[in-house]
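Inputs:
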Amino acid sequence: MLGFDPKIFVQDAIEKIKTDVKGKVILAWSGGVDSTTVAALVNKAVGSRLLCVFVDTGFMRKNETEQMQELGKELKLNMKIVDAKEKFLSALKGVRDPEEKRKICGELFIKIFEKVAEDFGAEYLAQGTIAPDWIESGGGIRNRIKAHHNVGGLPEKMGLKLVEPLRDLYKDEVRNVGKALNIPKKIYTKQPFPGPGLAIRIVGEVTEEKVDIIREASFILEKEIEAAAEKGKIEIPWQYFAVLLPTKSVGVHGDVRAYGYTIVIRAVDSIDGMSAAYSKISHEILQKISTRITNVLKDKVTRVVYDITNKPPATIEFE
Ligand code: XMP
């Protein structure tokens, strides 16, 4: 948006929410930049009439649920954590198709939010939807590329009115709004993380074993990249994560054969996620990530590869 002023945006958005929203609100809170910015905005407008709901799908990154608890306290939010790990894992059993995974996760989210909304007596649902979400989900301008889960029919099915204050903004604008709202820097600079989480970073069927592998590999990758950035060796990429391929290949430890999965390192530079260039990470850093992943996940991961595809023609995520 030309001449976008985050402070003015915040004032206007709070006024608008105060005028439009009279009852209780639940927020689908993932802890990312978008939904945390919405949490802070709506909290300023309606206070304890807002309940921030974080669903632990089991597809979250390492220590994420604990970090959400801390963040909720820090931002003084009225919050609820729903443990839905088993529900999500069993619902995805045998499912391989990416859009099917999104549909199943989306439906489960609806069920959970429906129950929480009923218990809390909410009339409104707040969401961190931003412009690329509805544009890439087939918002009329382009072909539907992926059904980013926080766009699909949640409110119609739930009979809740929608509060989407960031709907017309792009990621970089949302970060500035988050900063203007004084949310912690680690949040407004946080990289995006998809709603279905690690489930769409496991290509093909999701199993508990694969979730454990990808969670550890992602953790190592994030730490190594962040450490390299802190030492000034690289600019932190816009998004950086691990993907697990179902392809198994032969490895060797000493003189013992191993047969494990393949991990892809994906790191991209972008402004809004609509297009992206793969990050030119040095071989030294890539090597470190590869060695640590194959040491820690010995026997489970025998190969690590680096994705050098831009968007387009690829998308950022594999699914
Ligand atoms: P793609 O893979 O479409 O990703 O190039 C663009 C941005 O969107 C994120 N993404 C998602 N976010 N639910 C979300 O909330 C989803 O299903 C989803 N799929 C992709 C992706 O991480 C990237 O930042």
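The first strand starts at residue 24 and ends at 28. Flag for discussion at group meeting.
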